[in-house]
Amino acid sequence: MTRDPRYDILFEPVRIGPVTARNRFYQVPHCNGMGYKDPSALAAMRGMKAEGGWAVVCTEMVEIHHTADVAPFVELRLWSDQDIPMLARIAEKVREHGSLAGIELCHSGYTANNLWSREVPIAASPMPTASYLYDPIQARGMDKQDIRDLRRAHRQAALRSKQAGFDLVYVYAGHGLGIFQHFLSRATNFRTDEYGGSLENRARLLREVIEDTKDAVGDTCAVPVRIAMHEFQGSAGLEPAEVEDAIAMMADLPDLWDLSLSDWSKDSQTSRFSEEGFQEPYIKGVKKLTSKPVVGVGRYTSPDTMVRVIRQGIMDMIGAARPSIADPFLPKKIEEGRLDDIRECIGCNICVTHDYTMSPLRCTQNPSMGEEWRRGWHPEKIRPKQDDRHILIIGAGPAGLEAARALGQRGHQVTLADRASVAGGRVTRESRLPGLAAWARVRDWRLLQLNKLPNVSLYLESDMTPETVAELGADHVLVATGSEWLRDLTGRHFLSPADYAESCDVLTPDDLMSDLRPKARDVVIYDDDHYYLGGVLAELLVREGHAVTLVTPAPVASAFTKASLEQKTIQARLLKMGVKVLANQAVSGIAADHVSLECAYTGEASQLEAGAVVLVTARRPLDGLWQALTAQGIAATRVGDCYGPATIAAAVHSGRKFAENFGNPPEDFLDIPFRREVTALS
Ligand code: ADP
Ligand code: SF4
């Protein structure tokens, strides 16, 4: 296939200072939870982006000094020469495929708590640190010597970056995480010397560091600046007009402007709250201020939108973190005219949750993400089948669909059966809920791929029983039958069920997704699951006219969504819609007209009137069919939620893992099924 000439513009080279990008696809820096702990895995992941056609591939934030220590988060470090080989490996993997390697040098100022180095944090002005757990630490305000030292440290890190083989060496003033942003913003700079007060003074350090970096490495390396266009704090913080003034003051000083929003939750908004291109209103004024290339982000996955933003002069290069995670081969697919094959990011932020939980990056759409080195998985390729076994897969949810796709790609004959009339399992059901429509892409991409595989047949409305399975006579059965929500109070707070009268109107998420509704107007949603569903169902019921109280033993609504950067937005939306959030309370009993509550701290009992209750507590694996098949001696394996209920990302990964391993000798419980890197002893 050849590319549509409409997209030619995306493949024009772009000059960035002394280097040239081969096209307009730019993987902006993004965190990944691997950092200095999993450097080879990280290097392989970045290399994969380059193989997939991203002309620029950047690292995540790289601590430039031991006072820039962001533990417990796992990022990269460039504190001394000792760190150079690790970074050199990343640059090498990127350059191997003809792409430019960028490094995001970072000092995090008052957001670096120095928990590992035990240094006193430094900041533009003295202030409590911003931290993960409200650490009882304050940062000291920097004196003139500190500023000179910081400039020296940045310069040294730039020289080390050049030595490690990077082509772009960043000055970072974004996401509320870069100290140069802290100096630039009135919200974090209260200085009265020449580095505080007027915009010119607040921008002084940023300007000096850009000049230092260009002076140190600018002969061969480009120096981009990543800057926050908005801090969303009203006039107390940075707003686009002031940032534009700052950019105008330094217009052509850096080699590229990389624009984003601050903090990270504003920059990496989920599809529940924003559309593709959501940053355009904030960045569209910048290009006219500079002759240097401008990069912007906004979850761009559509080539037509990419062409539009280039043609409209909003940006010169398409920046992407999440779209490059969901599909490292996105540029190649556009280049080769294979638009159908683009695996579009669904905007769920599972990727972000893993940086937040300090575990290696993963992705709902791309199960090979983070597994390139550990397990040798490739987002586009898989080894051919080792035998001719015919596999029957029961359940076309995310686990079954991915297993069928990957086994089909290996060349196996696959029969995929589902009792539902539409494929997709939970993805189909959940994507009909408010704000989750983009999640259907998990199903749709896989169905499109299955259509191209003549060796895979999909049968809907096929309820499989041990008898029908035996009749089919497949060589192996993969059971991907999912899970169901419990109709009792078993969750994280109470680990055992509690009885209630059958006459009570009690519903589960499955009921609501099957269009059953509470009879009463006053509804309690009891959320002891703590991810998105409780909050989403509250939205659904309020929109339909119910009065909803969301009861949770956690201190906030949808507590885990802190890790997907959504918690504050979710709680604000619920409160604005009129949902009452009753935190720190567990539902301990259900009656026809009320629920009994128990304080999560004191155990004190109380009651809350409610005509109906929706229980979002825990799920039960639906593995009865697997048990029956196994009892009959039929070779069967469980994958996805029927093996262990978890995220959609986990189900997709589980299906892929089965397909990758099929034909291998069975895994021994005592063998680690992936490679890991163990710290070398000094
Ligand atoms: P997962 O997340 O593990 O992929 P889902 O719950 O999304 O699981 O999907 C499970 C799918 O299995 C559903 O579409 C359901 O209709 C289907 N299913 C469950 N039991 C059977 C069965 N006995 N025969 C056919 N399909 C089944
Ligand atoms: Fe996109 Fe979700 Fe994958 Fe992140 S995890 S890249 S948001 S699909």
Structural Rg: 26 Å
Number of helices: 22
Largest sheet: 10 strands, parallel
Low-confidence stretches: none
The total beta strand count reads 30
What does this structure look like?
This protein has 682 residues and is α/β, with parallel strands linked by helices. The chain is 29% helix and 18% strand. Strands 3, 4, 5, 6, 10, 11, 12, 13, 14 and 15 form a 10-stranded parallel beta sheet that branches. Strands 18-17-16-19-30 form a 5-stranded parallel beta sheet, with helices on both faces. Helix 7 links the parallel strand 12 (224-228) and strand 13 (256-260). Helix 2 (84-95) crosses helix 3 (144-164), helix 14 (398-410) packs parallel to helix 16 and helix 19 (532-543) runs parallel beside helix 20. The longest helix has 21 residues, at 144-164. The two termini are 53 Å apart. The model has no long low-confidence stretch (mean pLDDT 97). The structure holds adenosine-5'-diphosphate and iron/sulfur cluster. Iron/sulfur cluster binds next to helix 11 and helix 13.
